[in-house]
Amino acid sequence: QAQQAKFLSDAENELEELAVTIAQAKKMVELIAWVGWGEEKEPRTLSFGVFSCFTWSWVPGALGCESCRVKEERRAKLAQCKQNLENVPSTDTIYFLQEFQALKVAMEENLSPAPSFQNELNFTKCTQAVGAVKDVLSAACKNQRDHLQGKGIDGLSYQEMEEGLCSPSPSARRAGRAGGIASCFPPHPHVSFLPHTVAFIIDLDSDTADKFIQLFGTKGAKRVLCPISYPESPTRFINCEQVLGVNLMNRGNYYWEVELIDGWVSIGVIAEDFDPRESYNRGRLGRNEKSCCLQWNGQNYVAWFGGFESVIQQPFFQTIGVFLEYSEKALTFYGVKDSKMTCLQQLKVSHFAKGQFDPFQNKINHQFASLFLCKLKPAFFLESVDAHLQIGPLKKDCVSVLKRR
């Protein structure tokens, strides 16, 4: 009994070590399997033919899958012996001695096979594989970064990529005219090969979120009743339940989508230098000349800019698409449903006589262009206590529609 505590502690430590070892081995298997096999379960060819000299049959040996299985069995046996010993009644001395001896024997077993020449070769191959995985991941990350920064692939411009990758055949052109939706689209929903349109990835900035806004990762936001103890930040809203994206927009075109889950929600853009300490009346999206938005108030959509509003007679759309044309000084809101886009409102200076009779358009004509003298950020206002939004995945067909504009 004096040795019971020590043996239980040693058993617990070994169980934890085995669990970590097993988890690491499984992750390595998954990582190399991911590189070796594509989504269609076909072998991928790695750069420079790193794996062409040997097949994937060595992977289980290289990663010690057999050893991993033995470790799992040992861990299960130790756990069972430990549990049996802990369950022995304090008055049953004979049963205690039996279970204690069983745990002691299990602890003293050495099930790890001695290193062999073949295992050393497998370890060398494993090292080569890990190096190849690292190279592939580095190249993939670089390509992704180049796409997001607006660069082409292998030095090609987006226009060249479009001509080379997306040139439809005559039959495809006829099908496109008949069907309406462009058939050519890049495989990644957030990376557009359009020459001027960027499918925008938005991450919410927790340093701007009002204390009554709860964030879910970097994509979701919900207004709550109890304040959240966010750290102090000079960019945090203090009088309006608003949050911004970390992303800056100052050139080109941008498109993103937002899911309206519940409540009154406003979606728009705001100048980077806007003061988040503004009062409630002046600080809300669209109630000043530094921001504009589309609001859902539970009954209607309303466009806001500079304190002026324009009520929109359209049914509710759960998904709202936002298309910012920075160089054109235009912002368009779309209702998106089943990959079909309905224009709800476009904010853009108009040189026609409409603005003379429409106070909202007149405000746009006089001051909207000055908003584009600043760098802009995506902005969100959760007006009601149950307001909830999610920055949604982009609909591929919608970006294709914008491409044809």
UniProtKB/TrEMBL annotation:
Residues 180-398 form the B30.2/SPRY domain. It comes from the Eukaryota. Keywords: Metal-binding, Zinc, Zinc-finger. Pfam families: SPRY, TRIM_CC. One of its GO terms (molecular function) is zinc ion binding. The keyword Ribosomal protein does not apply. PROSITE patterns: B302_SPRY. This is Tripartite motif-containing protein 47.
